[in-house]
Amino acid sequence: MNSVIELLKSHRSIRKFTEEKIPHELLLELVRAGQSAATSSHIQAYSVIHVTRPENREQIAELAGGQGYIASCSDFLVFCADMKRPTDAAERTGANVVRGMTEQLLVASVDTALMAQNMAVAAESEGLGICYIGGIRNNPQAVSDLLQLPEHVYPVFGMCLGYPAQDPEVKPRLPAEAILKEDVYSEDPDEVEAFDQTMQGYYQARTGGNKDSNWSQNLTPLFDTKLRPHMRDFLVKRGFEMK
């Protein structure tokens, strides 16, 4: 395999960082790499908030569920789906702009994720560690208020960046055969059962036998309750009406 594929397959979430700071010019280069990701119709429907004030990072850490590495990493970014910039730009040309369409929400969310993943890979290629923070959606209105996000912009996730102070193992993924379907969708219970055994062995080895669980069992809290039920109303209030 070439070095790019090997890098992609070696991703780990890093939650402990050294005190070394990322040079600002390197951070800008990572952003530029992120901007080179594919974007629907060249809309580039994202903005990235670089949170530098310690008190704001501490507050976001609490809002995200007490994730202290938000405050301790070298740099913390909040990736925002931004339909304000492109719709405002179109409106300035005289267009009769229609806002709040479901497709606009999808485009902005996908654009943001693609941009962030490009940036994550670029960061890892420079020896940095990253950790996505979906927990900012626990309290998205409070995060939006703190970052002064306008209507038609919402925080999708955060990202911790820094030089790693830990070297965790790569977490196993489902086998490609369970993901790749030929022509039509097909069920794969045997593949999932085999993966559950793989994950059980991984957790046992990683925790010294203190965690007896598997992939399917870990999904339970995500699906046996309504996860973040506030998100739909929050998005509607931000102008993503899903019309």
List the uncertain runs: none
Radius of gyration: 20 Å
Proportion of helical residues: 40-55%
**What is the number of helices?**
11
Question: Architecture of the largest domain, CATH level 2?
Answer: 3-Layer(aba) Sandwich
Number of domain modules: 2
Describe the structure concisely for a colleague.
With about 240 residues, the protein is α+β, with helices and mostly antiparallel strands.
Short descriptors:
243 residues, alpha+beta, NADH Oxidase, four-stranded antiparallel sheet
How would you characterize this protein structure?
There is one protein chain. The protein has 243 residues and is an alpha+beta fold. The protein folds into 2 domains: 3-170 and 226-237, NADH Oxidase (3-Layer(aba) Sandwich); 172-212. It is built from 11 helices and 4 strands; from the N terminus they run H-H-E-H-H-E-H-H-E-H-E-H-H-H-H. It has helices spanning 3-9, 24-35, 54-63, 69-72, 84-92, 102-125, 140-147, 176-179, 189-206, 215-223, 231-237; strands at 46-51, 75-82, 129-133, 153-162. It is globular. InterPro entries: Flavin_OxRdtase_Frp (IPR016446), Nitroreductase (IPR029479), Nitroreductase-like (IPR000415).
